[in-house]
Amino acid sequence: MRRLLLVLPFALLPLAVAHAHDEHDHDHAHGTLGAHEHGVAKLNVVLDGNTLELELDSPAMNVVGFEHVAASEADKAKVAAARQQLEQPLKLFGPAQAAGCAVDSQELESPLFGDAAHADDDDDGDEHEHGHQHADVHAHYQFTCATPAKLTQLDLGPLFKTFPQTQKVNVQLIGPNGQKGVETTPGKAVVVF
Questions:
Q1: Per-position DSSP letters for the chain, written without gaps between them
Q2: What angle do CA 10, 122, 166 make, to 5 degrees?
Q3: pTM
Q4: What is the pLDDT of residues 22-66, one digit of tens each?
Q5: How far apart are CA 91 and CA 85, in angstroms?
Q6: What residues does each domain of the chain span?
Q7: Residue 46: its pLDDT value, please?
């Protein structure tokens, strides 16, 4: 079902272009279109039949409070704790229990977890003028939901509480009622299908 998430960027391209135009004015000084913004994460959600897929992309700063490779025992403990929390998506994303969603598969990737940097990252392409590398956390989850009609919303409140440096999650959703983009915050954390 990974194909579902592969079509999402194309299906939502008109929304992305409009959003990029708005972001351009805010991020022009940094030379980006908001690709890596501390405090902001992206979540793609696809509900197709009884399959729910979630794809979370977040700067590591939002998840562990830093972006360097963990060297100290304290930093290693933070990375291990964050990974353990990310391995519990039913708690983080709050799908309705009545929907009966169970995790089929999950993938977690980040240079902080010991994964190699993505092939499209160059040595200095993601470097700030301050000289530090950016690191992201990428999580992909696939669920099977016994009663998908009961899955009317996701509650991102637990995600915001678990990772308090995350101030905003931009959600792109494709579900039974079509597609939409939603901006969530700790005070407005529910995404309705």
A1: -HHHHHHHHHHTHHHHHHHHHHHHHHHGGGTSSSSS-TTEEEEEEEEETTEEEEEEEEEHHHHHS--SPP-SHHHHHHHHHHHHHHT-HHHHH---GGG-EEEEEEEEE-GGGTPPPPTT--TTTT--TT-----EEEEEEEEEESSGGG--EEE-HHHHHHSTT--EEEEEEEETTEEEEEEEBTTB-EEE-
A2: 60
A3: 0.77
A4: 433 333 333 333 467 899 999 999 999 999 999 999 999 999 999
A5: 8
A6: 2-25+36-114+134-192
A7: 98
